[in-house]
Amino acid sequence: MNDTILIVEDEPKIARLIADYLSKSGYASDHIDHGNAVMEWLAEQTPMLVLLDLMLPGTDGLTLCRQIRERYPALPVIMLTARVEEVDRLLGLELGADDYICKPFSPREVVARVKAVLRRTHGAAAGAESELSEEERLVLDEDGWRALAGGHDLGLTAVEFQLLKVMMQSPGRIFSRDQLMDHMYRDHRIVSERTVDSHVKKLRRKIADIWPERDIIRSVYGVGYKYQPEE
Ligand code: CA
Questions:
Q1: Which of 26, 69, 138, 157 is least enclosed, having the fewest CB within 10 Å?
Q2: Would you tell me which CATH number, out of the four given (1.10.10.10, 1.20.1260.10, 3.40.50.720, 2.60.120.330), belongs to the domain 132-227?
Q3: Which CATH number is correct for 4-121, 3.30.1360.40, 3.40.50.2300, 3.40.50.360, 3.40.50.720?
Q4: Could you say which DSSP state residue 129 is in?
Q5: How far is the CA of 53 from the centre of ligand 1 (A)?
C-alpha cells in the first residue's frame, strides 16, 4: 500500500479542488478522469483510499465500486454523488462503499470524511481494540471457532461466529443483510433476511450477557448492521 488517495472524478475543477485540500492536510493524491482506466490503475498501484464519483464516462461508479469490493475487499471507497435520492444511497451501500458524500460538498467535508474512514479502516488493520482493556476486548479464536468477550467464551454457533467475524474485519462498515447472508453459509444456502436478523439478535444477546452496557453490534435502520467496538 502506498499513501496516496485516488480521486476518480471527471470534472477537472472538482478533482483539483479536492486534491488541493487533501494536499493541505498532508495527503498525496492521484487523479483519474475516466471510468475505464480505474481497474487498470489499481492493478498496478494500491492507494490507501478511493474517492469515487458516481457518474463517470466509461465504467460508472457503481460498477467500479462493486469491482473494487470484489478484488480489493480491504480498500476503502468513498462515493461522491450528485444524486441524493435515498435509493441511490442504499444501492451504493449494497455495493459496500465505506461512506458517501453528496454534491455539492465542501472540500473541507471531503477531507473530514477521508480522515474518519481512514481512522476506522486503518484502526481495523492495526488492531482497533488496542485502546481497550483486557476486560473490554472481544477476541476471535479462529481455530476454535470461539469468540471471547473479556476472556469469556460467548458460546457462538458456527453461523453466529461467521457473522461476527465478517463484521469485525471492517469495524464501522455497514453490512446489508444481503452481504451478511453471503458470508453466513459457505454453500450459499438460500436464507431470508429475517434469518439474518434472528442470528444477529442471538449474537447480540450473547454479547449483552457479558457486557449489558455495550452496544457493539449496532443495527442501522433500513440498511443492516455494523460492528462498532468504541464510540
Ligand atoms: Ca461526474
A1: 26
A2: 1.10.10.10
A3: 3.40.50.2300
A4: G
A5: 6
Predicted pLDDT of residue 68: 92
Closest by Cα among 87, 153, 61 to 69:
61
**What separation in Å is there between the alpha carbon of 40 and the centre of ligand 1?**
19
Q: How far, in Å, is the centroid of ligand 1 from the Cα of 56?
A: 5
Q: Please tell me the predicted confidence (pLDDT) of residue 126.
A: 47
Which residues of the chain does CATH 3.40.50.2300 include? 4-121
d(CA 88, CA 186): 29
Encode pLDDT of 14-48 as tens digits: 999 999 999 998 999 999 999 999 999 999 999 99
Tell me, in angstroms, the distance from the centre of ligand 1 to residue 110's CA: 16
What band does 128 get if pLDDT is binned at 50, 70 and 90? Answer: very low
Question: Would you say the pTM of this structure is higher than 0.70?
Answer: no
Q: How close is the Cα of 34 to the center of ligand 1, in Å? A: 9
State how far the Cα of 5 lies from the Cα of 31, in Å rounded to an integer.
9
